[in-house]
Every structure is written in structure tokens, then in C-alpha cells.
Amino acid sequence: MPPQLDVFSFQIVAKYFYLYEDYVNAVQINKKFLNILDRFRYNPISVSTLKLFPYIETQHLYTEKDTLIPFVKRYVVWFTVSLTDSYSLFTDLEVVYKHVKIDNEDFFTNSISDINEIPKSVNIYSLSLLNNFTEITEFSVPLHVTKLKTSVFDNNTNLNCTELEHLTFSKSLFIIPNGCCDGCHVLSDVVLPENLLEICSRAFRQNYNLDVDIPKSVTKIEQDAFYECLGNIYLDVGPECKIEKDSPWDIDVLFGTYDYNKECNHVIFAEDLHIEVTSLLSKKKSTL
């Protein structure tokens, strides 16, 4: 039977192969595809030589173990590197870093004293970011930041970050990570993106003045996401939203008030609220 794909279409499909053997087998399907690998100008999988893709102009490095191929014009690094390493790795080469994180060590190494001095090349924020600065009352996560690490804005009780009151998450973020704003006692105004998908455990634990709207886009809220929160929480999620818990259903399991000043916690439900609740112990489902 003649092949159903032309050479151009098959090259597009081949970009999504995972294994070396897949590409070797591809050229043996039909004579039409014999030189298909010569058409690639970059490597879709990790390679250490030009044997598989002899005419690549840009080498993509997917893991830290990948080996640089000499005399390639350009390199693209996909594994996560620190801001400091992005300045020191592969010097004198044309390199693009796709995932650059900043952590506490980077602030000292690169003498960053103002939050506006963080380079736009950084798209991952790490542990306790704001604790490196003083007198910050308001912060908006920039659009170029695509990932927040665990406890990124936590521990606002320390001397350096006691003033944060307003926090806006950009639409480039889809997950609020574990412990994101854990212990941010004076944080009162939080703006979540309309495309947010998940709020992880302890994300807003012990936020005593919290005022936040949870958008309909959210599909998962982990247990204790709002543990010991005080304030106004508007819950307007769709029927596909799953709330994880490990005990019989009670709204306190999610918002974590338990016996802690329950009368101060104000949770506002949308009129058409319908939530699927998943028990971590029994795996049974119920609805609210």
C-alpha cells in the first residue's frame, strides 16, 4: 500500500518520535522517506553526534547529560538552570535557555538588590523569593514567569517581608504550588488568573486577611489549601473541580478552619456551585 503522507507531512510527524530507533525505522518505511533525516535542522531527541541528523544547525540539549556537538551554530537548553549558571555555562557559544530559575543564592551572586532588577530571562521563581527584599507591599508576577516553585512567597513573618498585602498572579501561571503564600499573615488582596487550573496544599495557609475569588477554570483544590484562613473566599468553580481530602467531607477540611476561629471565616458559594469531592483514603466521590 502506498504511503499516505508526503515527505513534508511525515517530517512533522517524526518530530514527535521519542526513540533513536523510531528514526532509524522511519527511513526504512519507503524510498520516499530515505533522506527524511537530512531535512532536520535541529535534533528532536538527545544526540551526541551528527550521525542521525547530519545537517542540524541548532542542537537542542534536553538533559544535563547531553553532550555538545562541536561546530554547531546554535544551542538551545531545555533543562532548568539557575540564573548564575546561565551566565557561566557554555561561554563563548550562542545559547538560548528555555527554563531559568532564580533562588536565594542568585541574589547574592549577582548583587540583585531590587526586585525590578531580576532579568526577564528568568521564568521560574524559587523558594521564598520576596524575603530577599524589604518594604514590598504589592507585587505582580510578570508575564514571562511561567512557573512558581514550592513556597515561593512563603514565610512573610520574617523581618524582610512583613508588609506584602497585594499579590497578582499572571495569566501565564496555571498552578499555585504547595505552600505558595504559606504564613503571609497580612496578605489581603490576591488576584488569581482566569485560566488557573490547580491550587495545591497549603497554598494560602494562615492568611489571616485573605480576600480572593477562585475562578471557574480551577479543576483541582488540594486539602488544606486555605488552612486557617480568615477573610472572604468566593468559590465559583465548575462541576469538574475536584477537592482532595482524607477525612469525611466537611468544608473545614478544605479551608482548614477546624476549631480555629470558625466564626471569622467567610466562604461565599456561587449559586450554581457543584463540586466533586475525592477522598484520598476511600477514593469515594461525593458532591457538594
TrEMBL record:
Listed InterPro entries: LRR_5, LRR_dom_sf
Protein name: Leucine rich repeat containing protein BspA family protein
Protein source organism: Entamoeba invadens IP1
Lineage: superkingdom: Eukaryota
One Pfam family hit: LRR_5
